[in-house]
Amino acid sequence: MDLPSPTRQGGPPAKVLWALFWRMLVLGPLVSLVGGVALVVAILADVGLLLGAVVLAAIGEYMWTLIAAGGWVGWRRFGRPVREWIFEGFDHGSL
Questions:
Q1: Which of 76, 50, 79 is nearest to 65 (CA)?
Q2: CB-CB neighbours of 2 under 10 Å
Q3: How far apart are CA 63 and CA 73, in angstroms?
Q4: pLDDT tens, 36-92?
Q5: CB-side neighbour CA atoms (13 Å) of 52
Q6: Region 17-22: what's the mean pLDDT?
Q7: How far apart are CA 2 and CA 82, in angstroms?
Q8: pLDDT at 54
Q9: SS in 3 state form for the chain?
Q10: pLDDT number for residue 56
């Protein structure tokens, strides 16, 4: 009689683990690069535009201040889906 091995019951086969491993190996650097760029853009849009508006107002460049402040308000008003997409990984990672 050919009985199944008790050590193989309940565990995923090696083929499935290998498939996940090589996909993670190939796609991991690409995903981290895209996510890193998106994170930098989001931080610069949040902090950079507001700080730029304050500095521009301090040096008297009022037209550029209005443009930077308008860009910041627009990012805060309409950028929520983008911010949720970027920071979704932090939410899932902290579970």
A1: 50
A2: 3
A3: 15
A4: 898 899 999 999 999 999 999 999 999 999 999 999 999 999 998 888 888 886 666
A5: 18
A6: 84
A7: 56
A8: 95
A9: CCCCCCCCCCCCCHHHHHHHHHHHHHHHHHHHHHHHHHHHHHHHHHHHHHHHHHHHHHHCCHHHHHHHHHHHHHHHHHCHHHHHHHHHHHHHHCC
A10: 95
What is the value of pTM for the model shown? 0.63
As given in the structure block, the two tokens for residue 3 are: 């009985």
Give 72's contacts (C-beta < 8 A, 6+ positions apart).
Answer: 45, 46, 49, 50, 53
Given a contact cutoff of 8 angstroms between Cβ atoms, the answer to whether 72 and 50 are in contact is yes
65 and 51 Cβ atoms separated by less than 8 Å? no
